[in-house]
Amino acid sequence: MSTLDDAINEAVGAGEIIKVDFSGLKDRTEFGPLPEGDYVCRVVHAESGTSAAGNPKAVFRFEVAEGDHKGRVLFRHIALVGSSLNMLRGLLSALGLKDEAEAGEFNTANTIGKMCVLHVKVDANDPRYNDVRYAKPYKAPNPLT
Question: Which residue in 3, 15, 44, 68 has a CA-CA distance of 20 to 30 Å to 53?
């Protein structure tokens, strides 16, 4: 061992061994974009921010809640100016927050856990990513039918 290794071990300790069984996992070397389609999603995070152009924006992180891609994450950044406001109003309405959408004001905490259906395409400008095109209300299946 080098003097540097000895110094690091002395400063932080030798650590501990953690045993993990990865044998049941599928190989996932890379997450590509989701295929184009509709995905039932849940809002897991929402916050305000500023776009690269200096405009205020809302940022939403969604988790796919059903199907083969359950657990995958999608993002939607919506500038709070111009025609982008149509996307925000549509998203809030799809999340069941129509009153907030009509009032022009919403609390990000009220979006957490809400579900909707997102229509997703592969981003035309960068095919490594998805582009959330629009949101529709989620209708939970009726277990009695």
Answer: 44
Range of the domain at 113: 36-137
CB atoms within 10 A of CB 89: 17
Q: Which amino acid is at 42?
A: R
Radius of gyration in angstroms for the set of CA atoms belonging to the chain, rounded to a whole number = 21
Q: What is the pLDDT of residues 28-62, one digit of tens each?
A: 556 789 999 999 999 999 999 999 999 999 999 99
Q: Please indicate, yes or no, if residue 9 is contained in any of the structural domains.
A: no
| Number of residues assigned to the chain | 145
| Count of domains forming the chain | 1
124: Cα separation from own chain's centroid:
19
CB-based contact 74:114 (threshold 8 Å): no
Tell whether 50 is covered by a domain: yes
Q: What's 91's domain CATH number?
A: 2.40.50
| pLDDT at residue 14 in the model | 63
Contacts 24+ apart (CB under 8 A), 42-46: 42/113, 42/114, 42/115, 43/95, 43/111, 43/112, 43/113, 43/114, 43/115, 43/116, 44/73, 44/112, 45/112, 46/108, 46/109, 46/111, 46/112
